[in-house]
Design goal:
The protein has 346 residues and is an alpha/beta fold. Helix content is 29%, strand content 15%. It is found in: Endomembrane system.
Length: 346
Amino acid sequence: MASRSLSYTQLLGLLSFILLTSTMAVRVGVILHKPSTPTLPVFREAPAFRNGDQCLEADQIHIAMTLDTNYLRGTMAAVFSLLQHSTCPENLSFHFLSLAHFENDLFSSIKSTFPYLNFKIYQFDPNLVRSKISKSIREALDQPLNYARIYLADIVPPSVDRIIYLDSDLVVVDDIEKLWHVDMEGKVVAAPEYCHANFTHYFTKTFWSDPVLVKVLEGKRPCYFNTGVMVVDVDKWRKGLYTQKVEEWMTVQKQKRIYHLGSLPPFLLIFAGDIKAVNHRWNQHGLGGDNFEGRCRTLHPGPISLLHWSGKGKPWLRLDSRKPCIVDHLWAPYDLYRSSKHSLDE
């Protein structure tokens, strides 16, 4: 049966049901797998998801994500949501980027949680970017893995010519195949864009007062887009040497301090006004609030295919603290986490 996205009304109905039943304790028989290192969370095994009859084995959908030990719980929930809402879940091919010293433990954790998942883990060398990173407004934005998406085209196999990059703080409530088949119209990047946002806020006065730097936006209608959900034409990225172009802007940032927001601004300087815009339903972002306090936010009206907790507030942390936002209960059904105490109880 083909997957359907959830309407705004349906999401609110689901949220009401979750809140109504949240006090009911339901014990189920699950198999828990504990990774070899105590530093990683413990997850229960996800059910197996199989292709529908209409699926063709050759139609692979490539998805890239990072594996940060601090965000692993979010990554597991994101993968679970992708599989659950996919018509052809066995066609999803995951490309995970991680730091070398956690690779074996992360592999074991994913394999035990998703035994049937088609995935590969690639080592990301933090030295590629460490000296290029400038301090931003939030420490989490300064971590090397936050910049790994810049090097994605150089890391995945040459046979991968298109890929969907996803952050770890999101869940997908629609069939990802719909986003995969977007017509790129010759563009390098496809993503929801937001032209009502005040573009000037993303850069400093130093940038706007420099006529040479500002010239990069000449002839464009620059619009904000969030780099946590992107379809990337990997072939065009490689041929256009876009990794080097992003690095060049990072070098300028080191010299002149032209922005405050981690890895996002270089993407805006290169691609803003020149991406393939896709429907906003594919990134209901900002659910984590701002980058300073992470206050609760509500859903925007309209159809929703992807919920994204960008910002400081993460749903698993707010749920654990017993101070969740209402929207965090939409993330909770995809949470595969079990604490060590829960594991022993089972």
